[in-house]
Write a structure and sequence with these properties.
The complex is a heterodimer of chains A (360) and B (377).
Chain A (H helix, E strand, L loop, with lengths): L11 H9 L5 E2 L8 E6 L7 E7 L3 E7 L5 E8 L4 E6 L5 E6 L3 E6 L4 E7 L4 E8 L4 E7 L3 E5 L8 E4 L4 E7 L2 E6 L3 E6 L5 E5 L8 E8 L5 E8 L3 E6 L9 E4 L16 E6 L6 E5 L4 E5 L4 E5 L7 E6 L5 E6 L17 E6 L11
Antiparallel strand pairs in A: 1-28, 2-3, 3-4, 4-5, 6-7, 7-8, 8-9, 10-11, 11-12, 12-13, 14-15, 15-16, 16-17, 18-19, 19-20, 20-21, 22-23, 23-24, 24-25, 26-27, 27-28
Chain B lengths: L4 H4 L17 H10 L6 H5 L11 H18 L24 H13 L3 H23 L3 H11 L67 H4 L11 H6 L34 H6 L15 H4 L22 H7 L21 H8 L20
Helix pairs in contact in B: 4-6, 4-7, 5-6
Classes of the chains: A mainly beta (360), B mainly alpha (377).
Amino acid sequence: MFTQSTLGATSTFASTMNTANPMRDFEVTSPPEDSVSSLAFSPASIAQNFLIAGSWDCRVRCWEVEQSGKTIPKSMQTMQGPILDVCWSDDATKVFMASCDKMVKCWDLASNQTIQVAAHNAPVKTCHWIKAPSYSCLMTGSWDKTLKFWDTRTPTPMLTINLPERCYCADVDYPMAVVGTAGRELIVYQLEGKPQECKRIESPLKYQHRCVSIFKDKKNAPAGFALGSVEGRVAIQYVIPQNPKDNFTFKCHRSNGTPNGYQDIFAVNDICFHPVHGTLATVGSDGRFSFWDKDARTKLKSSEPMEQPITRCCFNSNGQIFAYAVSYDWSKGHEFYSQLKKNYIFLRSCFEELKPRSKA
Amino acid sequence: MVVCKFYVQGICRYGENCRFEHPGSQQQAVNYRNQNRSWQSPAYAASQGGRGTFQPDPRDLAAVIKEDVIAMEEGGQWPLSCYTPLKECPNFPNFYDTSMEEVRYEAYQAQASNTFDEYVKKIGDLIQETRLKWNLLKNPTPQIYSVIEKLASGKTVGENTAGPSSSFTFKTFSFNSPPSPTASSTFSLGTNPAFVSSNPQQQQQPPPGTFFSTSQPSSAASSFSFALPQQSQNVGSTFSASPPSFPQSQPVFGGSPSGFGQSGGLLFANNMTSPAAVSAALPQQPTSAGFFGSQPETNTQQSIFGMSQTPISQASSFGTTANVSTFEQKVPQPVVPDISVYTPVADLSEAEKKEYSAVTFTLSSIPLRPPARELCM
């Protein structure tokens, strides 16, 4: 395991400076005033980098991220409930915001107007933009146990798929979608032509699903997904494994053994794959991020612990920037929540650190 | 690592040197966990293969379960989770998922409707009930053991994911209608006779300080600092001010710097290269001093959540109002205890009750009749 041993060792001033930002990354200015629930960088269709973050203060904020690391607040929208997920349209003109108010709104950035584009009977946990050759639509997953597909121009969904349980996490990489629900259910959808269920997969994890992220094979087609659970464990799962041993799980976001011999176990809050290298980042309730090479089955890097859990992370479209949000995730209940603690979003120059382990 | 069959029967001759796992054996447990190898785990290796290809001995499975539960409790893991001792197998009955976000939204709703004390009590009860259920897995009753036997043989046990008893229900909400603050969520504390002791005092207490810690003596409600709306500060001004401290030096994120400085016209209406230009570009917000904040709708509300602060009585229904009753009818009861194996508590003599309540039997007065069910938990 790599650690940056130089941090905080030189002077007390340095150590106090580093407790909030132990990795000495770029801090996003004017961060959200409550925990960050969602983060997304603008897609590759525009040259600049814009970062959006949804938060429990019912707001979605947008910054422009300059190459220098400087962030410029651009605009903000408010919904009627806490935000649970955000995503971009493929042309980067719109942002979709999923909220506990059971709606998804579309934010047109050029006009700075919002319009409702989706509705559920319960808070909407996930939203993903699907860009297919023959259609484009918004996929929303909710605690009302449905997955819906929206044209965004009509108030009724194009398609509603019933889920066995409440939607907890989802990811889309055309032509594949995967949904993880309560009760350890996992469903893979194929989106060609029309979205339809492709396969139900027996969960490789033993506890509650929390985050899922699709990875690609060498031909750049979606091949499988990484699934994270509250048990500090990630499963790498191929939809069609060439070999049963291709699927495996690994522990992460745990403390090294405590005196009684047991590890502290933290939830895996988010997983993201690097768009160029195919390596992955995980973030957890322990306040650390880690970089992994799933093919070499090794850890590339682990961060120092932050003051609070890391709730979400994302890469920008060319894989140069790793953004991670430091804020409380409710993993220890309301007693450990303090509104006085500042929330942070940090930006890290990450391209080199996520290069796969060389086959030496 | 495979659980040692002989150890499970108490007759392994190799002790700490055995090459198979001795779950619960302190020395080995410490050894395994201190290895801290990310890619392997004894419990998972023991459960390799999944349903259909591998049929573990129920005793092995019980040992795996006990180890899992202890690791979960000691590790401070999120407890409101479903569980299976074998991956790619059905869930253990009567354990249900509630995510951190669902609990959190429940708390925010309670705060908005001034029913936070009720939330604190209900979530406390839910945690306590869940802890008791986990605790019972460590020392399975005959009923739980029969479930373990079924799981070991690969059968689906009772209900699986249907009708979670400790979940949330949401009132339906029609499209285009104004968002109502009356979304009533319910922690229904469905109880199951197979798992819930009638006498919680006899239960081992949950390990301290692992979750919803009681180490903070002040009342939970008061330590929860929702009461301080911090939004009154002028967010807009901080946002429109351009932080001058950042060096405008060479790119740190690599790639071509040509992207920066190009027109932002694709995204925003005007070419916005300075914050001042941005504010000029947003004429739709006449009241806004900056870009963030000063939304008209938030101005009218002091609530943190942007929801109505009007206390709505039904929003506080943590399983106490009428809409719960329909819900609880669905509570599954997969394991019905066989009452006949027990002696009714009224039939036991005082001496027998005393013996069954004691930590150890007194040698000369071990009861001959079976214990009462209440005394087994």
